[in-house]
Amino acid sequence: MNKTIRFSAASIAMFAAIGMGSVAHADTATADATAEILDALVLNNDGGSLDFGTMVVSGGGVVTLAADGTLTCSDPDIVCSGTTGVAGFSVEGTANKAVTINLPTGSVELRHPSYTPATSAQHAIELSTFTSSENGGTGPEVTLDGAGDATFDVGGTITLDGSEEAGQFDGTFDVSVEYS
Amino acid sequence: MSFKTLRKFVKHSVAVAALSSAAIVAHSPAHAQGDLLVAPTRVILDGSRGTEVILSNIGSEEATYRIGLELRRMLENGRLVPVERTDANSSEEAALGMIRYAPRRITLPPGQPQAVRLAARPGADLADGEYRVHMSFKAIPRPREVTASDQPAEGVSIQLIPIYGVTIPIIVRQGRVEAQVAINQPSIVQGETGPEFAMSISRAGDSSTYGVLSVTRPGDDEPILLLRGLAVYPELNERQVRVRLTPEQAAKFNGQVRIEYREMPDAGGGLIAAVDSFLG
What we know:
The complex is a heterodimer.
Chain A (H helix, E strand, L loop, with lengths): L1 E3 L4 H11 L21 E5 L8 E4 L3 E5 L5 E2 L5 E4 L5 E6 L5 E5 L5 E4 L8 H4 E9 L8 E3 L5 E12 L6 E13 L1
Antiparallel strand pairs in A: 2-7, 3-6, 4-5, 4-12, 7-12, 8-11, 8-13, 9-10, 10-12
Chain B lengths: L6 E3 L26 E4 L3 E4 L4 E7 L5 E12 L5 E4 L6 H9 E4 L2 E4 L4 E8 L8 E12 L15 E19 L4 E12 L4 E11 L3 E8 L8 E8 L5 E7 L2 H6 L2 E9 L7 E9 L1
Parallel strand pairs in B: 3-11
Antiparallel strand pairs in B: 2-4, 4-9, 5-6, 5-8, 5-10, 7-9, 10-11, 12-13, 13-16, 14-15, 14-17, 17-18
């Protein structure tokens, strides 16, 4: 969990402009001060990583962590425990603009520390079907509110074949945002 | 001038209801290492002049960012879908080939911005038109050491770290490019969460359009709806626009309105398309 002190889109823009080193030249005594205002887009990872908790696996099955945080772990051969968490993000930018969220369309492989290609059955888990809590007409999309803020969460589905060795499986997945 | 993004982390205290023999898994706290700001959010290159994009580390820790070029195509509803390089068409390949930028990897302490310089080097025989790539700025997660305490004695746990970032369009205009634009079928429709303003923009020609959409009632100074940064890319002949309305806005959406699609004020604010319509 995470608290961010919010700053306005205007201050982002100012900051960016000053970061660029743009200087308002005063050529005459009555010169206007000018500042370049740039639109900025900010992405924060507030909710950490996608965490399925701990699973004791005695057979194959599927575990789904929905983007709203609901865990579905109903296969009898898998016992889920521990804290789960979706990956939460916040976006800051221009008010009322739509932002496309890009999630992996394929699957991602998670690997055990002792992974080798020969032992991929025990040492790899496939995570597929990334889902977003915010969706537009045909896919993940979020509209920034009047203050230029929005949040979204990412969930996913893992498929276990029952032979996974105990341990922590690590992996990464790509998330990016862009103004629609 | 400076601003700080303060973060407080409440440790994910993992209250594992320990199964008879399952060990307790202590997860490392979620440090938002790699939070980022990118400005501007759109770049147009015409001629040989280059420009700069600012990347700033607004996270609480030092972070390394990778800067790359990707391809996107816009769908009719305005969403941008990724396109693999192997599926690139000739115009997209040309765009990938002409963009020069540096650096490609930046390590920044918290609060520190840095400029990424970029320029287009179009070939001499490049056909007139608009070429586009999307520049991505992504934080690379710091390699994490796996310690013995991370490993549950029994059971499987999963650590899935997001590599997250921002992408912005980089548009190269070669020669003279034009677009013809019209606004069609403005209406009020019932969306999932309430009333929405819907319309479509039809576009022809080689150029994209980008600007502000405003809806104004005759006699009012202030528009009842203002949508900044609406883009229609050349791969589209038609784009749908849907905007959620507040109840106050929705109440004003009846009778005669004027809908205008203008260039951004810093681009001159020229009128791209307009229509007078009767809603309700």
